[in-house]
Amino acid sequence: MESRTDANELPYWLALLRIPGIGPVTAQTLMEQWSTPRQLFEAGAAGSKDLERLAGPARDYLRQPNWQAVERDLDWLAQAQSHAITLHDTAYPPLLKQIADPPLVLFVQGNPNLITSKQLAIVGSRNPTAAGEQNAAEFARFLTEVGLTITSGLAVGIDAAAHRGALAGSGHTIAVAGTGLDRVYPARHRDLAHEIAERGALISEFPPGTPPRPENFPRRNRLISGLSLGTLVVEAALQSGSLITARLATEQGREVFAIPGSIHNPLARGCHTLLRQGAKLVETAQDILEELGALAAWGETLVPTDTSVAPAENGPKEILGLLHHVGFEPTAVDTLVERSGLTAAQVSSMLVVLELHGQVTSAPGGLYTRIH
Description:
The protein is an alpha/beta fold.
C-alpha cells in the first residue's frame, strides 16, 4: 500500500466513508470541528454531546465502525499500484478540492501523480456517430501531445473513444469510475481499463466492492469536471448525462466547450443547447488551447511533442501531401481521393487531423477548404 496519509490515520478515513447518511459536505463540516477522523471517532465512542445533531444510525456507527469493511479496503490497497489519497493529503488534486463537495478519499489504480496534472474532460453520447467517435479520439490524441491529460468516465461511446485516442498519443488519460476499482463497468472495457491503469490512472471515490448503482454516476460526473480545467462535449442528446457534467463544470467555474453538428443530427442538439448557454464553440483543438492557455499557466507556444501528428512542415508526408491537394475553394472528398491516390478512409482520417490543427475547414456537402 502506498499513501501519503499516515498509516495509523488511514483506517479512520476509510471508516469515515461509510458513516450512514453522511455525504462529503457534512463530513467536511465534521472535519472542521474535529481535525482528524480519528478524533471524530474517539468523540463518537465517548458519546460526545457535540454529535447529538447527527441521526441515530450515524452516531451508532461512530461508536462501532465497520472495521471489517475497512480491512477489505486495506487488502485492496496492499496490491501493487493501488493508492488512497485523502482530502488532507498534499497530493490531493487542488482543483478538485475547490469544488463544493470534494470526496474525502480518492482511490487510485495506476500513476497517482497524474491526478494533479492539467486535465481536459472529454464526454459525450454513449451511442455516438462514427464521426463523433473519430472527433473524440483525434482531439484526445492531439491534446495529449501538448501536455494535457484526457479525463473521462470509461463509458461506452465518446468516453471510450477519448481514452483510446489519448492512449494512441502520449498515453496520459484518467478514467473516473462509478464503481469500486476492484471491478470494471461496463465489463466490455476490462482490457481498456487495464491499459489505462498501466499507462494512466483509474480513480474512484467509491471503496472497493461498490457495485455500479445508478446514483453513483452523477456523483462520478462531478469528479470528471472537478478534476479538469475544462470539459469538451463532443456529441450529446438533449437528455444526455454529458449535459450534467457540463452543468457541473459551469457551477465549478470551469470552461465548457462544445462541438457543433448538423441541425438534423439529434446528437448535436445537446451541444447546440450548451452553445446557446455560453459554451465555447470548438472547431479546432486550438480553440481549446487558446481558452485554457492562461488558466493552465502554459507558455505562449504549445507544440505537440510527437511531430507525427502535427500537420506542420515537419509533419507526416502523407498528411502534408493531402493538404497540398485541398484547394482554397471548396473541394470534395472524392476529388481529394482522385488527386492523392489515397483511399477514402485515409483521406477522411487525415482531414480530421488537418481540421483539428486549423489547416482546413469543412462545409456542408462534405466539402473542405484550405485555410493556410
